[in-house]
Amino acid sequence: MKKTRGRTGRKRRRKHLQSFVDGVNCSHKLEYIKLKKWLKDRGFEDGILRPAEFRGTGRGLMATRALQAGDLIISLPEKCLLTTSTVLSSCLGGYIKKWKPPVSPLVALCTFLIAEKHAGEESPWKPYLDVLPKAYTCPVCWEHHAVNLLPEPLREKAQEQRATIRELYLSSKAFFSSLQPLFAEDTGAVFTHGALEWAWCTVNTRTVYMKHPQRECFSLEPDVYALAPYLDLLNHSPKVQVKAAFNEQTRSYEIWATSQCKKYGEVFICYGPHDNQRLLLEYGFVAVDNPHSSVYVSADTLLKYLPPLDKQRKAKLSILKDRDFLENLTFGWDGPSWRLLTALKLLSLEADEFACWRRTLLGDVISARNQQQTWKVTTQICHFLIEETQRVLLQISQLRSGQETLKSQLDLVEMLHLEGLKILEKSAEVLCRWN
Protein backbone atom coordinates (compact mmCIF):
# COMPACT_ATOMS: atom_id res chain seq x y z
CA MET A 1 0.00 0.00 0.00
CA LYS A 2 2.79 2.36 0.92
CA LYS A 3 4.49 1.76 -2.47
CA THR A 4 1.26 2.47 -4.37
CA ARG A 5 0.79 5.82 -2.60
CA GLY A 6 4.36 6.75 -3.57
CA ARG A 7 3.68 6.00 -7.26
CA THR A 8 0.46 8.04 -7.17
CA GLY A 9 2.28 10.92 -5.45
CA ARG A 10 5.04 10.84 -8.07
CA LYS A 11 2.43 10.87 -10.88
CA ARG A 12 0.69 13.81 -9.26
CA ARG A 13 3.98 15.70 -8.89
CA ARG A 14 4.92 14.93 -12.52
CA LYS A 15 1.53 16.19 -13.67
CA HIS A 16 1.99 19.38 -11.60
CA LEU A 17 5.50 19.94 -12.99
CA GLN A 18 4.23 19.28 -16.52
CA SER A 19 1.86 22.23 -16.10
CA PHE A 20 4.88 24.55 -15.71
CA VAL A 21 6.94 23.04 -18.54
CA ASP A 22 6.20 25.95 -20.90
CA GLY A 23 6.44 28.72 -18.30
CA VAL A 24 8.60 29.37 -15.24
CA ASN A 25 6.88 31.49 -12.58
CA CYS A 26 8.91 34.70 -11.95
CA SER A 27 6.65 36.43 -9.42
CA HIS A 28 9.28 35.85 -6.67
CA LYS A 29 11.76 38.17 -8.45
CA LEU A 30 12.33 41.45 -6.61
CA GLU A 31 11.47 43.65 -9.62
CA TYR A 32 8.01 42.03 -9.91
CA ILE A 33 7.39 42.09 -6.14
CA LYS A 34 8.10 45.85 -6.16
CA LEU A 35 5.95 46.39 -9.25
CA LYS A 36 2.97 44.51 -7.76
CA LYS A 37 3.26 46.45 -4.46
CA TRP A 38 3.46 49.74 -6.39
CA LEU A 39 0.35 48.78 -8.40
CA LYS A 40 -1.51 47.65 -5.27
CA ASP A 41 -0.86 51.05 -3.67
CA ARG A 42 -2.62 52.56 -6.71
CA GLY A 43 -5.68 50.33 -6.35
CA PHE A 44 -4.78 47.33 -8.54
CA GLU A 45 -5.79 43.86 -7.35
CA ASP A 46 -4.85 40.77 -9.36
CA GLY A 47 -5.31 37.14 -8.47
CA ILE A 48 -5.29 35.59 -11.96
CA LEU A 49 -1.95 36.46 -13.61
CA ARG A 50 1.67 35.80 -12.68
CA PRO A 51 4.85 37.01 -14.44
CA ALA A 52 6.66 34.07 -16.06
CA GLU A 53 9.37 33.18 -18.56
CA PHE A 54 8.09 31.13 -21.50
CA ARG A 55 10.12 28.98 -23.85
CA GLY A 56 8.70 30.36 -27.08
CA THR A 57 7.89 33.98 -26.22
CA GLY A 58 10.18 34.99 -23.35
CA ARG A 59 8.65 37.16 -20.64
CA GLY A 60 4.87 37.04 -20.34
CA LEU A 61 1.94 36.43 -17.99
CA MET A 62 0.73 33.02 -16.80
CA ALA A 63 -2.84 32.12 -15.78
CA THR A 64 -3.11 30.78 -12.23
CA ARG A 65 -6.45 29.17 -13.10
CA ALA A 66 -8.23 28.07 -16.27
CA LEU A 67 -9.81 31.02 -18.10
CA GLN A 68 -13.11 30.85 -19.96
CA ALA A 69 -14.56 33.11 -22.66
CA GLY A 70 -16.10 36.12 -20.96
CA ASP A 71 -13.66 36.16 -18.01
CA LEU A 72 -12.11 39.49 -17.00
CA ILE A 73 -8.36 38.95 -17.50
CA ILE A 74 -7.10 42.23 -16.06
CA SER A 75 -8.52 45.55 -14.84
CA LEU A 76 -5.93 48.29 -14.43
CA PRO A 77 -7.13 51.42 -12.57
CA GLU A 78 -6.63 54.82 -14.23
CA LYS A 79 -4.13 55.77 -11.48
CA CYS A 80 -1.79 53.06 -12.80
CA LEU A 81 -1.84 54.33 -16.41
CA LEU A 82 0.83 56.66 -17.74
CA THR A 83 -0.79 59.21 -20.06
CA THR A 84 -0.31 62.85 -21.07
CA SER A 85 -2.40 63.72 -17.96
CA THR A 86 0.36 62.10 -15.88
CA VAL A 87 2.95 64.22 -17.70
CA LEU A 88 1.02 67.48 -17.22
CA SER A 89 0.58 66.83 -13.48
CA SER A 90 4.37 66.34 -13.10
CA CYS A 91 7.03 69.05 -12.85
CA LEU A 92 7.20 69.01 -16.67
CA GLY A 93 3.60 70.29 -16.94
CA GLY A 94 4.36 73.99 -16.53
CA TYR A 95 7.15 73.89 -19.13
CA ILE A 96 4.93 72.06 -21.65
CA LYS A 97 2.07 74.55 -21.18
CA LYS A 98 4.40 77.50 -21.81
CA TRP A 99 6.26 76.07 -24.82
CA LYS A 100 5.46 77.38 -28.30
CA PRO A 101 4.88 75.89 -30.80
CA PRO A 102 3.20 73.16 -28.70
CA VAL A 103 4.92 69.78 -28.42
CA SER A 104 3.11 66.63 -29.56
CA PRO A 105 1.58 64.14 -27.06
CA LEU A 106 4.26 61.66 -28.22
CA VAL A 107 7.14 64.07 -27.40
CA ALA A 108 5.55 64.81 -24.01
CA LEU A 109 5.45 61.09 -23.12
CA CYS A 110 9.00 60.50 -24.39
CA THR A 111 10.28 63.50 -22.38
CA PHE A 112 8.58 62.17 -19.23
CA LEU A 113 10.06 58.67 -19.68
CA ILE A 114 13.58 60.05 -20.19
CA ALA A 115 13.30 62.41 -17.21
CA GLU A 116 11.91 59.72 -14.88
CA LYS A 117 14.53 57.19 -15.97
CA HIS A 118 17.23 59.78 -15.30
CA ALA A 119 15.75 60.50 -11.82
CA GLY A 120 16.47 56.86 -10.85
CA GLU A 121 15.62 56.13 -7.19
CA GLU A 122 13.79 59.45 -6.85
CA SER A 123 11.24 58.63 -9.57
CA PRO A 124 7.79 57.54 -8.30
CA TRP A 125 7.60 55.47 -11.52
CA LYS A 126 10.80 53.52 -10.80
CA PRO A 127 9.08 50.13 -10.14
CA TYR A 128 7.58 50.33 -13.65
CA LEU A 129 10.71 51.69 -15.33
CA ASP A 130 12.74 48.82 -13.82
CA VAL A 131 10.73 46.18 -15.72
CA LEU A 132 10.84 48.00 -19.07
CA PRO A 133 13.32 46.62 -21.63
CA LYS A 134 16.77 48.21 -21.44
CA ALA A 135 16.99 47.94 -25.24
CA TYR A 136 14.53 47.12 -28.03
CA THR A 137 14.68 44.60 -30.86
CA CYS A 138 12.85 46.70 -33.48
CA PRO A 139 14.75 47.26 -36.78
CA VAL A 140 14.91 51.00 -36.01
CA CYS A 141 17.53 50.10 -33.35
CA TRP A 142 19.51 47.67 -35.55
CA GLU A 143 22.96 47.92 -37.13
CA HIS A 144 22.82 48.78 -40.84
CA HIS A 145 24.27 45.32 -41.77
CA ALA A 146 21.15 43.65 -40.32
CA VAL A 147 18.73 46.26 -41.72
CA ASN A 148 20.13 45.68 -45.23
CA LEU A 149 19.08 42.00 -45.00
CA LEU A 150 15.39 42.88 -44.53
CA PRO A 151 12.94 42.55 -47.44
CA GLU A 152 12.77 45.78 -49.46
CA PRO A 153 9.45 47.28 -48.23
CA LEU A 154 10.37 46.60 -44.60
CA ARG A 155 13.90 47.94 -45.04
CA GLU A 156 12.49 51.23 -46.38
CA LYS A 157 10.02 51.53 -43.49
CA ALA A 158 12.76 50.89 -40.90
CA GLN A 159 14.87 53.63 -42.51
CA GLU A 160 11.85 55.98 -42.49
CA GLN A 161 11.35 55.30 -38.77
CA ARG A 162 15.01 56.05 -38.11
CA ALA A 163 14.67 59.35 -39.99
CA THR A 164 11.49 60.14 -38.00
CA ILE A 165 13.31 59.71 -34.66
CA ARG A 166 16.25 61.77 -35.91
CA GLU A 167 13.89 64.58 -37.00
CA LEU A 168 11.99 64.36 -33.69
CA TYR A 169 15.26 64.67 -31.78
CA LEU A 170 16.50 67.69 -33.75
CA SER A 171 13.13 69.48 -33.61
CA SER A 172 12.81 68.87 -29.83
CA LYS A 173 16.31 70.01 -28.79
CA ALA A 174 15.22 73.57 -28.00
CA PHE A 175 12.32 72.27 -25.88
CA PHE A 176 14.67 69.89 -24.03
CA SER A 177 17.01 72.83 -23.32
CA SER A 178 14.12 74.78 -21.80
CA LEU A 179 13.91 72.09 -19.07
CA GLN A 180 17.41 72.93 -17.76
CA PRO A 181 16.13 74.38 -14.42
CA LEU A 182 14.86 70.88 -13.54
CA PHE A 183 18.27 69.20 -13.93
CA ALA A 184 21.66 69.51 -12.22
CA GLU A 185 23.31 68.07 -15.37
CA ASP A 186 23.29 69.62 -18.81
CA THR A 187 20.06 68.63 -20.61
CA GLY A 188 22.16 67.69 -23.67
CA ALA A 189 23.61 64.81 -21.62
CA VAL A 190 20.15 63.71 -20.40
CA PHE A 191 18.07 64.04 -23.58
CA THR A 192 20.40 62.28 -26.00
CA HIS A 193 19.43 60.72 -29.35
CA GLY A 194 19.83 57.26 -27.76
CA ALA A 195 17.54 58.20 -24.85
CA LEU A 196 14.87 59.48 -27.24
CA GLU A 197 15.13 56.31 -29.36
CA TRP A 198 14.57 54.19 -26.23
CA ALA A 199 11.59 56.32 -25.11
CA TRP A 200 10.08 56.37 -28.62
CA CYS A 201 10.32 52.56 -28.82
CA THR A 202 8.76 52.26 -25.34
CA VAL A 203 5.73 54.29 -26.48
CA ASN A 204 5.55 52.64 -29.91
CA THR A 205 5.74 49.04 -28.69
CA ARG A 206 3.88 49.20 -25.37
CA THR A 207 1.02 51.72 -25.40
CA VAL A 208 -2.63 50.75 -25.48
CA TYR A 209 -5.20 52.86 -27.34
CA MET A 210 -6.96 55.37 -25.13
CA LYS A 211 -8.47 58.55 -26.57
CA HIS A 212 -7.90 61.76 -24.60
CA PRO A 213 -9.53 65.17 -25.13
CA GLN A 214 -7.59 67.64 -27.28
CA ARG A 215 -5.63 70.15 -25.18
CA GLU A 216 -4.29 73.53 -26.32
CA CYS A 217 -0.88 72.83 -24.78
CA PHE A 218 -0.32 69.98 -27.27
CA SER A 219 -0.04 69.98 -31.04
CA LEU A 220 -2.90 68.62 -33.16
CA GLU A 221 -1.55 65.03 -33.40
CA PRO A 222 -4.00 62.51 -31.86
CA ASP A 223 -3.56 62.00 -28.11
CA VAL A 224 -4.36 58.27 -27.96
CA TYR A 225 -1.53 56.75 -25.91
CA ALA A 226 -1.55 55.06 -22.50
CA LEU A 227 1.29 53.03 -21.02
CA ALA A 228 -0.20 50.24 -18.92
CA PRO A 229 2.23 48.74 -16.36
CA TYR A 230 1.93 44.95 -15.86
CA LEU A 231 -0.76 44.70 -18.55
CA ASP A 232 1.99 45.38 -21.11
CA LEU A 233 3.66 42.09 -20.14
CA LEU A 234 0.94 40.26 -22.11
CA ASN A 235 2.36 38.85 -25.36
CA HIS A 236 0.76 38.74 -28.79
CA SER A 237 -0.73 35.74 -30.55
CA PRO A 238 -2.42 36.07 -33.95
CA LYS A 239 -4.66 33.12 -33.02
CA VAL A 240 -6.49 34.70 -30.06
CA GLN A 241 -9.03 37.49 -29.74
CA VAL A 242 -9.76 39.62 -26.68
CA LYS A 243 -11.96 42.61 -25.88
CA ALA A 244 -9.89 45.55 -24.63
CA ALA A 245 -10.92 49.11 -23.80
CA PHE A 246 -10.99 51.77 -21.12
CA ASN A 247 -14.16 51.34 -19.02
CA GLU A 248 -15.60 54.78 -18.22
CA GLN A 249 -17.75 53.35 -15.37
CA THR A 250 -14.95 51.57 -13.49
CA ARG A 251 -12.29 54.09 -14.66
CA SER A 252 -10.04 51.14 -15.50
CA TYR A 253 -8.45 49.70 -18.62
CA GLU A 254 -9.97 46.22 -18.99
CA ILE A 255 -9.19 43.13 -21.03
CA TRP A 256 -11.80 40.36 -21.38
CA ALA A 257 -11.14 36.84 -22.70
CA THR A 258 -13.08 35.65 -25.75
CA SER A 259 -11.47 32.18 -25.73
CA GLN A 260 -10.21 29.63 -23.19
CA CYS A 261 -6.76 29.41 -21.60
CA LYS A 262 -5.57 26.42 -19.56
CA LYS A 263 -4.27 26.71 -16.02
CA TYR A 264 -0.54 27.68 -15.99
CA GLY A 265 -0.79 28.49 -19.71
CA GLU A 266 0.45 31.77 -21.16
CA VAL A 267 -2.29 34.39 -21.49
CA PHE A 268 -2.14 36.10 -24.89
CA ILE A 269 -3.74 39.15 -26.41
CA CYS A 270 -3.86 40.13 -30.09
CA TYR A 271 -2.17 43.40 -31.14
CA GLY A 272 -4.13 43.26 -34.41
CA PRO A 273 -4.22 41.18 -37.62
CA HIS A 274 -0.62 42.14 -38.49
CA ASP A 275 1.73 40.28 -40.80
CA ASN A 276 5.26 39.44 -39.64
CA GLN A 277 6.87 42.41 -41.37
CA ARG A 278 4.58 44.78 -39.42
CA LEU A 279 5.12 42.86 -36.15
CA LEU A 280 8.90 43.04 -36.54
CA LEU A 281 8.85 46.73 -37.53
CA GLU A 282 6.53 47.92 -34.76
CA TYR A 283 7.11 45.42 -31.94
CA GLY A 284 10.46 43.72 -32.61
CA PHE A 285 9.38 40.07 -32.95
CA VAL A 286 8.20 37.50 -35.52
CA ALA A 287 5.20 35.17 -34.97
CA VAL A 288 5.70 31.58 -36.17
CA ASP A 289 3.00 30.33 -38.61
CA ASN A 290 1.27 33.71 -38.52
CA PRO A 291 -1.96 33.30 -40.56
CA HIS A 292 -1.88 37.02 -41.47
CA SER A 293 1.62 36.89 -42.93
CA SER A 294 2.54 37.35 -46.56
CA VAL A 295 5.50 38.03 -48.86
CA TYR A 296 5.44 41.32 -50.76
CA VAL A 297 6.25 41.66 -54.45
CA SER A 298 7.85 44.96 -55.45
CA ALA A 299 6.97 46.73 -58.70
CA ASP A 300 10.57 46.17 -59.89
CA THR A 301 10.24 42.39 -59.42
CA LEU A 302 6.90 42.47 -61.20
CA LEU A 303 8.40 44.09 -64.31
CA LYS A 304 11.41 41.77 -64.52
CA TYR A 305 9.25 39.02 -66.01
CA LEU A 306 7.23 41.01 -68.53
CA PRO A 307 8.09 41.66 -72.20
CA PRO A 308 10.21 44.87 -72.32
CA LEU A 309 9.07 45.62 -75.89
CA ASP A 310 5.33 45.63 -75.07
CA LYS A 311 4.04 48.86 -76.71
CA GLN A 312 1.26 49.22 -74.12
CA ARG A 313 3.63 48.66 -71.17
CA LYS A 314 3.69 52.36 -70.19
CA ALA A 315 -0.12 52.70 -70.44
CA LYS A 316 -0.63 49.51 -68.41
CA LEU A 317 1.69 50.73 -65.63
CA SER A 318 -0.10 54.08 -65.61
CA ILE A 319 -3.48 52.33 -65.18
CA LEU A 320 -2.15 50.19 -62.32
CA LYS A 321 -0.47 53.13 -60.61
CA ASP A 322 -3.56 55.37 -60.85
CA ARG A 323 -5.69 52.62 -59.29
CA ASP A 324 -3.11 51.76 -56.59
CA PHE A 325 -2.41 48.31 -58.04
CA LEU A 326 1.40 48.47 -57.73
CA GLU A 327 1.32 48.31 -53.90
CA ASN A 328 0.46 45.45 -51.50
CA LEU A 329 0.95 42.71 -54.08
CA THR A 330 1.57 39.54 -52.10
CA PHE A 331 1.94 35.78 -51.83
CA GLY A 332 0.11 34.26 -48.85
CA TRP A 333 -0.44 30.82 -47.32
CA ASP A 334 -3.16 30.14 -49.90
CA GLY A 335 -1.12 31.36 -52.89
CA PRO A 336 -0.86 34.62 -54.82
CA SER A 337 -3.26 37.37 -53.75
CA TRP A 338 -6.10 38.55 -55.97
CA ARG A 339 -4.37 41.94 -56.29
CA LEU A 340 -1.13 40.34 -57.55
CA LEU A 341 -2.96 38.13 -60.06
CA THR A 342 -5.07 41.07 -61.28
CA ALA A 343 -2.00 43.28 -61.80
CA LEU A 344 -0.21 40.49 -63.70
CA LYS A 345 -3.35 39.69 -65.71
CA LEU A 346 -3.52 43.29 -66.92
CA LEU A 347 0.21 43.42 -67.67
CA SER A 348 -0.12 40.16 -69.66
CA LEU A 349 -2.84 41.47 -71.99
CA GLU A 350 -1.99 41.18 -75.71
CA ALA A 351 -2.36 44.23 -77.98
CA ASP A 352 -5.74 43.02 -79.28
CA GLU A 353 -6.96 42.43 -75.68
CA PHE A 354 -5.86 45.77 -74.22
CA ALA A 355 -9.26 47.40 -74.78
CA CYS A 356 -10.64 44.95 -72.16
CA TRP A 357 -8.42 46.26 -69.33
CA ARG A 358 -11.42 47.49 -67.28
CA ARG A 359 -12.90 43.98 -67.29
CA THR A 360 -9.54 42.66 -66.06
CA LEU A 361 -9.70 44.90 -62.98
CA LEU A 362 -13.21 43.60 -62.28
CA GLY A 363 -11.88 40.02 -62.24
CA ASP A 364 -13.24 38.82 -65.59
CA VAL A 365 -11.44 36.10 -67.56
CA ILE A 366 -10.24 37.68 -70.83
CA SER A 367 -8.85 34.61 -72.59
CA ALA A 368 -7.31 31.20 -71.91
CA ARG A 369 -4.00 32.52 -73.24
CA ASN A 370 -4.08 35.47 -70.83
CA GLN A 371 -4.84 33.14 -67.90
CA GLN A 372 -1.99 30.81 -68.87
CA GLN A 373 0.48 33.70 -69.24
CA THR A 374 -0.57 35.17 -65.88
CA TRP A 375 0.00 31.86 -64.09
CA LYS A 376 3.33 31.38 -65.86
CA VAL A 377 4.66 34.81 -64.83
CA THR A 378 3.29 34.41 -61.27
CA THR A 379 5.12 31.06 -60.98
CA GLN A 380 8.36 32.60 -62.28
CA ILE A 381 8.12 35.43 -59.73
CA CYS A 382 7.39 32.95 -56.93
CA HIS A 383 10.46 30.85 -57.80
CA PHE A 384 12.62 33.96 -58.13
CA LEU A 385 11.58 35.07 -54.61
CA ILE A 386 12.31 31.58 -53.24
CA GLU A 387 15.83 31.77 -54.68
CA GLU A 388 16.29 35.33 -53.38
CA THR A 389 15.18 34.28 -49.89
CA GLN A 390 17.56 31.30 -49.89
CA ARG A 391 20.38 33.59 -50.99
CA VAL A 392 19.69 36.01 -48.09
CA LEU A 393 19.51 33.09 -45.61
CA LEU A 394 22.95 31.98 -46.80
CA GLN A 395 24.25 35.54 -46.30
CA ILE A 396 22.84 35.56 -42.76
CA SER A 397 24.58 32.29 -41.84
CA GLN A 398 27.89 33.62 -43.24
CA LEU A 399 27.54 36.92 -41.35
CA ARG A 400 26.66 35.17 -38.10
CA SER A 401 30.03 33.45 -37.79
CA GLY A 402 31.92 36.74 -37.64
CA GLN A 403 29.36 39.07 -36.01
CA GLU A 404 28.58 37.97 -32.46
CA THR A 405 27.15 41.42 -31.57
CA LEU A 406 24.57 41.10 -34.37
CA LYS A 407 23.36 37.66 -33.25
CA SER A 408 19.91 38.66 -31.91
CA GLN A 409 19.24 40.91 -34.93
CA LEU A 410 20.34 38.20 -37.37
CA ASP A 411 18.19 35.64 -35.55
CA LEU A 412 15.12 37.83 -36.07
CA VAL A 413 15.81 38.60 -39.73
CA GLU A 414 16.49 34.90 -40.34
CA MET A 415 13.19 33.98 -38.66
CA LEU A 416 11.35 36.49 -40.86
CA HIS A 417 12.88 35.04 -44.05
CA LEU A 418 12.26 31.44 -42.95
CA GLU A 419 8.58 32.27 -42.43
CA GLY A 420 8.55 33.98 -45.83
CA LEU A 421 10.14 30.91 -47.42
CA LYS A 422 7.38 28.67 -45.99
CA ILE A 423 4.74 30.97 -47.51
CA LEU A 424 6.46 31.03 -50.92
CA GLU A 425 6.82 27.23 -50.96
CA LYS A 426 3.10 26.88 -50.16
CA SER A 427 2.31 29.35 -52.97
CA ALA A 428 4.51 27.37 -55.37
CA GLU A 429 2.47 24.23 -54.54
CA VAL A 430 -0.79 26.12 -55.19
CA LEU A 431 0.49 27.41 -58.55
CA CYS A 432 1.68 23.94 -59.51
CA ARG A 433 -1.83 22.58 -58.93
CA TRP A 434 -3.35 25.42 -60.98
CA ASN A 435 -0.95 24.85 -63.87
UniProtKB/TrEMBL annotation:
<dbReference type="InterPro" id="IPR015353">
    <property type="entry name" value="Rubisco_LSMT_subst-bd"/>
</dbReference>
<dbReference type="Pfam" id="PF09273">
    <property type="entry name" value="Rubis-subs-bind"/>
</dbReference>
<comment type="similarity">
    <text>Belongs to the class V-like SAM-binding methyltransferase superfamily. SETD4 family.</text>
</comment>
<dbReference type="InterPro" id="IPR046341">
    <property type="entry name" value="SET_dom_sf"/>
</dbReference>
<dbReference type="GO" id="GO:0006954">
    <property type="term" value="P:inflammatory response"/>
</dbReference>
<dbReference type="GO" id="GO:0005829">
    <property type="term" value="C:cytosol"/>
</dbReference>
<protein>
    <recommendedName>
        <fullName>SET domain-containing protein 4</fullName>
        <ecNumber>2.1.1.364</ecNumber>
    </recommendedName>
</protein>
<feature type="domain" description="SET">
    <location>
        <begin position="42"/>
        <end position="272"/>
    </location>
</feature>
<dbReference type="GO" id="GO:0005634">
    <property type="term" value="C:nucleus"/>
</dbReference>
<keyword id="KW-0963">Cytoplasm</keyword>
<dbReference type="InterPro" id="IPR016852">
    <property type="entry name" value="SET_MeTrfase"/>
</dbReference>
<dbReference type="GO" id="GO:0140945">
    <property type="term" value="F:histone H3K4 monomethyltransferase activity"/>
</dbReference>
<dbReference type="Pfam" id="PF00856">
    <property type="entry name" value="SET"/>
</dbReference>
<dbReference type="InterPro" id="IPR050600">
    <property type="entry name" value="SETD3_SETD6_MTase"/>
</dbReference>
<dbReference type="InterPro" id="IPR001214">
    <property type="entry name" value="SET_dom"/>
</dbReference>
<comment type="subunit">
    <text>Forms a ternary complex with TBK1 and ZNF268; the interaction with TBK1 is ZNF268-dependent and leads to TBK1 monomethylation.</text>
</comment>
<keyword id="KW-0395">Inflammatory response</keyword>
<keyword id="KW-0539">Nucleus</keyword>
<keyword id="KW-0949">S-adenosyl-L-methionine</keyword>
<dbReference type="GO" id="GO:0032259">
    <property type="term" value="P:methylation"/>
</dbReference>
<keyword id="KW-0808">Transferase</keyword>
<keyword id="KW-0489">Methyltransferase</keyword>
<dbReference type="InterPro" id="IPR044429">
    <property type="entry name" value="SETD4_SET"/>
</dbReference>
